[in-house]
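TOKENISE THE FOLD
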Amino acid sequence: MTHDELPGAAGLRPTFAVTVLAADEPAAFGALRDFLRDALTEPGRAYAVRILGESLLTDPADEVAGLGPLGGLGFDGLYLNVRQRWQSPKWADEGLYDLTHELTVALRRGELVALHTPVSAALLRGWVRAGAPYRFLPDAVLDAYERESPGAAAAASSRLTSGARLDFRAYLAQVTEALDILDKAAVAEDTPR
């Protein structure tokens, strides 16, 4: 699975729906990538899944295809994963399969990671509770996001949403704005991020 098998980042259009996690160590990003890779290779209720490609960028000079260097975009880490999933449609018992392409984007800036993924909130919550190097953000910090942005926050899962489908440059700007608000709120609340 190489960077070359992924569509160019500039051509991606994710919906702004992210789970924000915090960690004290930059190396935790590798543990998150390993967890995501393992979770995304499990078919679950699907007939089959296949990872089409993935990319991990952690050097500020690493080039984000069509957008510039990672550091110039304001991030310390980027993980992209595209998987195919074959699953029976809900209206058929067997014999028919839908092919879906799913995108995972993890962006790290400092202690915070914004994660857009089809991995279930329950699976992610279980991983965090089982001793992962990440934690969910406190309610008071997430409340600041709802006060200062047009989006919504779900405290139980550290999830931020606006429902907007954005080109990747606009998505990065939205993530940057969200992380700015959360960082500021964490400092104001004097809570660990």
